[in-house]
Specification:
Blueprint: H1 22-28, E1 33-36, H2 42-63, E2 77-80, E3 90-93, E4 98-101, H3 110-126, H4 137-142, H5 151-164, H6 174-186, H7 194-208, H8 225-228, H9 235-260
Parallel strand pairs: 1-2, 2-4
Antiparallel strand pairs: 3-4
């Protein structure tokens, strides 16, 4: 069973104490489809719907986005408790555009995996990637793929630069250097992948937001083994990245709000 007492959330009461359903989650955040595992019991389903609703609402609030924007123009699918790899909290499957949360271990990974979904979704809109290819905007940016000219796309490029480059823009940021060292330590390329660097930076900024605390959305970027070895941006860097995140998402949210009205 999911134990709500594990997730001591602090933030606005979007539901006014009411129980929501996964249908409410789907419609509020404009998701395409939600799959629920056959082994998820009714009580677990109710608790999970509330937790996921609050987490996605918190994410929209912190990014200054209207809630319907979270569904990425109704292309994002969500799966809960449908199976997966042992020990894996959550994962994003680009081929199916699906963000999957494990029933008992998905807590804390939602922000990280949402970034992967966004990074995938925005790639062909921000960069001239090959049609039909599975691409991530962060990878395209680092590979110098030509950008689609648009003011918001330039703001996205600025976000990548603040996160991944040194202050003068001539070298990789110390955050990247630490990730490369971690990859050498574990003899694999993972921590220094642009998509993973950006996902960790994104979730770190979300957890550091002082207004809201939601361990179901994100957890352990401040205190964990990975945090202790520099796997996340430091406090000063998080402030810079969060400012760049809002520099991108806030005007995007304004445009989407006008479009909806």
């Amino acid at each position: 069973m999911l134990k709500q007492r594990q997730y001591q959330r602090q933030g606005p009461d979007y539901r006014f104490g009411e129980q929501v359903s996964f249908v409410d989650v789907k419609h509020t955040f404009n998701l395409n489809q939600i799959r629920i595992g056959s082994w998820v019991e009714e009580q677990e389903k109710h608790k999970a719907a509330n937790l996921i609703f609050d987490a996605l609402a918190d994410l929209a609030y912190m990014l200054k986005l209207p809630p319907h924007a979270i569904g990425l123009r109704q292309t994002l699918n969500l799966a809960f408790g449908t199976g997966g790899q042992q020990g894996v909290q959550a994962h994003y499957m680009p081929a199916h555009r699906e963000l999957a949360l494990a029933k008992n271990a998905g807590a804390g990974a939602l922000a990280h995996e949402f970034w992967h979904a966004f990074d995938h979704y925005i790639a062909p809109k921000a960069f001239k990637v090959k049609p039909g290819a599975i691409s991530f905007a962060s990878n395209a940016w680092l590979a110098d793929v030509p950008m689609v000219e648009h003011g918001l796309n330039q703001r996205l490029s600025d976000l990548f630069a603040v996160t991944l480059l040194s202050g003068d823009g001539n070298d990789g940021h110390a955050y990247v250097s630490r990730a490369i060292a971690l990859d050498k330590q574990y003899a694999r390329q993972y921590f220094s992948k642009p998509s993973e660097l950006m996902a960790r930076a994104f979730e770190a900024c979300i957890e550091s937001c002082s207004d809201i605390h939601n361990p179901y959305l994100v957890n352990e970027t401040l205190k964990s083994d990975l945090a202790s070895v520099g796997g996340y941006p430091d406090a000063a860097h998080r402030e810079q990245i969060y400012a760049a995140l809002l520099g991108y998402f806030e005007p995007l949210g304004d445009a989407l709000g006008r479009e909806k009205s």
